[in-house]
């Protein structure tokens, strides 16, 4: 490790969208310097105007050359490409993290990094259905869980620094194995996205043709369908890199939906009431 | 009609749960008198303590005897039972409305009311996943659509008074045929409830066994599953009285879910991106 405490570290955030821009803004003032790396100069300028970074560059090599911590905040498959190239650009002892929503493929790619780099997978449980630097919000991480996936080669000091970074942006670090995190987020995060998409597609194919539908659609539909507005590039990468777990979650879900459909078909009031009450209690247990 | 303007009307609200209690509170001061009718004396007392009603009673006959407008704010199948009995209790020219979420069965029952009553089906597009008088909120109806389903026998003056009542609580009236409203809300309101239930049941059967799931579950899952916390008696009544339309919506939805599942299975990036982008655009069109 180049530094042991965050306050003396230069942190370079690669990718200044919603997640990266928000992280940069939350870290600014809590570390020595926040450097933003983006493909387009306009993004750098916007990040500077919003006070999210100390310095910015469109050159990856220049942005990470003096970094104590590098955070890749790009879509998952861009992270995979960057991991294949970034190693030689990083200084000795640099901590390399990411914010990708799926972890097994990323951690496997991190295992192939050169020995002088300390890798640590990361996945903060937050987001919005809007994307881009204009939506960046330094409070985005506050009170959220920040999953960390260390590799066998990750040192205790590197993991501790990653935990400090998560805490510095207001999140609670949670150390998890990559496979376990991918299994859990398939049901808790990727499945809800697909349900929301199927709901919007259903309305689009049926009720949206009726002008009254637009006056009727209420907060229930709005909340249930919110995730269908998520960034498509991000979600495509997630679905393609967590396919097996997402398909398992979809199969479980389809079985539950069939069970509920049969209850409605049967019209058995008692059975329906009992099943819906069990589900309601479980929802209250999840969100008291 | 007994009155032509709401300000001189006594409005009796039968059922002081979330919907009835909120309506009573919103109407108070905008009509001559708001009378609350509930099964239990404690509910009347709570409604009075919260300033939602002028007077209250547990006797239906007493509560509606002098009413210019009666609003049935009970679950759909209770409304159906009340419609079979309430006719003889109502004064000549009384406007009888309801707040039930399904309208075909209710409007059919309203058609059998004695001639001296003016019937008008109603369905305000609002709600919360909490129920009961303690959750009542006079602002609940503000900015929402209030569907009104007049019968062939409903007079223009009765419909106008119903519109005034909707506007008095801050809602926008929308006149719709009962069958058309039931078709629309099956997809826009009842389907989202069932999806949320299937999602909670899926997590319950799989990830909830892992303690980390409780730290990971984020705002996406919370919003998508919110409706699963809805009142079970209300939802059972809705599903049982709108079965045919709900089953049609479920079939459409299952087909869309199968389509998305096949896209994930195929792993065809281009097709997936195109389908998810179309859905995202449609979601933005629904909620700009």
What is the element layout, followed by pairings?
The structure is a homodimer of 288-residue chains.
Chain A (H helix, E strand, L loop, with lengths): L9 E5 L3 H10 L5 E5 L3 H9 L5 E3 L2 H5 L4 E4 L3 H11 L8 E4 L5 H7 L7 E7 L20 E6 L5 H13 L3 E4 L2 H28 L7 H4 L2 H7 L6 H10 L1 H24 L2 H18 L2
Parallel strand pairs in A: 1-2, 1-4, 2-3, 4-5, 5-6, 7-8
Antiparallel strand pairs in A: 6-7
Low-confidence stretches of chain A: none
Overall mean pLDDT score of chain A?
Answer: 96
State the oligomer: homodimer
Largest interface: A-B, 89 and 89 residues
Q: Tell me the number of strands of chain A.
A: 8
SSE succession of chain A: EHEHEHEHEHEEHEHHHHHH
Helical content of chain A, roughly? 40-55%
- What sort of overall outline of chain A do the alpha carbons produce when their principal axes are compared? elongated
Largest sheet of chain A: 8 strands, mixed
* Terminal Cα span of chain A: 42 Å
Beta-strand content estimate of chain A:
5-15%
Question: Numbering strands along the chain, what is their spatial order in the largest sheet of chain A?
Answer: 3-2-1-4-5-6-7-8
Protein model, in words:
Chain A folds into two domains: 6-176, 3-Layer(aba) Sandwich (Rossmann fold), CATH 3.40.50.720; 181-286, 6-phosphogluconate dehydrogenase C-terminal like domain (6-phosphogluconate dehydrogenase C-terminal fold). Chain A has twelve helices and eight strands. In chain A, strand 1 (10-14), helix 1 and strand 2 form a beta-alpha-beta unit. Chain A is elongated. The mean pLDDT of chain A is 96. In chain A, helix 4 runs parallel beside helix 5 and helix 7 (178-205) crosses helix 11. By secondary structure, chain A is an alpha/beta fold. The interface between A and B is large, with 89 and 89 residues.
């Amino acid at each position: 490790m180049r530094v042991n405490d965050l306050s003396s570290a230069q942190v370079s955030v690669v990718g200044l969208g919603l997640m990266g821009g928000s992280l940069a803004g939350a870290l600014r003032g809590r570390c020595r310097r926040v450097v933003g790396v983006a493909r387009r100069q306009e993004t750098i300028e916007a990040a500077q105007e919003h006070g999210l970074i100390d310095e910015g560059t469109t050159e990856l090599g220049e942005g990470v050359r003096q970094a104590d911590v590098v955070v890749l905040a790009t879509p998952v498959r861009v992270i995979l490409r960057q991991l294949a190239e970034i190693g030689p650009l990083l200084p000795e002892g640099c901590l390399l993290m990411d914010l990708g929503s799926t972890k097994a493929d990323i951690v496997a790619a991190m295992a192939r990094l050169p020995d002088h780099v300390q890798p640590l997978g990361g996945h903060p449980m937050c987001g919005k259905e809007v994307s881009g630097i204009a939506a960046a919000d330094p409070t985005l991480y506050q009170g959220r869980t920040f999953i960390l996936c260390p590799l066998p080669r990750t040192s205790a000091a590197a993991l501790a620094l990653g935990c400090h970074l998560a805490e510095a942006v207001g999140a609670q670090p949670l150390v998890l194995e990559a496979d376990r995190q991918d299994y859990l987020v398939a049901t808790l995060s990727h499945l809800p996205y697909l349900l929301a998409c199927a709901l919007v597609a259903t309305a689009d194919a049926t009720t949206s043709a009726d002008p009254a539908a637009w006056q009727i659609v209420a907060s229930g539909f709005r909340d249930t369908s919110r995730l269908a507005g998520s960034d498509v590039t991000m979600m495509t990468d997630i679905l393609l890199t967590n396919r097996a777990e997402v398909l398992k979650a979809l199969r479980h879900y389809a079985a539950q939906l069939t069970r509920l459909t049969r209850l409605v078909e049967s019209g058995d009031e008692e059975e329906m009431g009992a099943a819906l009450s069990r589900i309601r209690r479980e929802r209250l247990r999840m969100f008291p």
